[in-house]
Amino acid sequence: MATLRLENGTELTDLAAIGQILAPLNIQLNHWTTGTDPQVQELLACASLNDEQKDQVLQGLDHYFNTLKENQGYTSRDLIVLHPDVPNLETLLAKFEKVHTHADDEVRYIVDGEGVFGFVLPDRSQVELTVQAEEYINVPAGTEHWFYLTPSRRIKAVRYFAGTAGWVPEYTETPIRLPRLTAV
Hints:
alpha+beta; Jelly Rolls; 9-stranded antiparallel β-sheet; 5 helices; 11 strands
């Protein structure tokens, strides 16, 4: 279940309330089930996946991709699998832990694990949204945001692309004021 944390420490879990706060940024947040296919579910339970297994997961969830292709022009997708044993994980994540924007939308379907998207709202306040399995998020191009993994340090996410050139982070000088989520 998505959780939105405000600067004053308030946490919201109601999707309608979260949607209302994120509305000025035009962020889309939806619940998408991973279904009941036993093969897909078995693969999602694995800590790591090889390329063939990733393709099996993607094919099992391609009804979402087909809809995005038809309605919004997305042309490709991949499955990123991050966990503590991924080589150079910290280096990879460091690229996205600072406030940045992208020239294209950042579209993710979390199929396992969880991560945190931080956002700078139009009034310059900041919020952090923890997204979990079966949640789809579309962060529009030009939105100031950052991303990091929760203390569990694992996530599997389908990434959807209209192209790949616009996905390079363009860093802003905005400092992050929210304390990072830590283990409880």
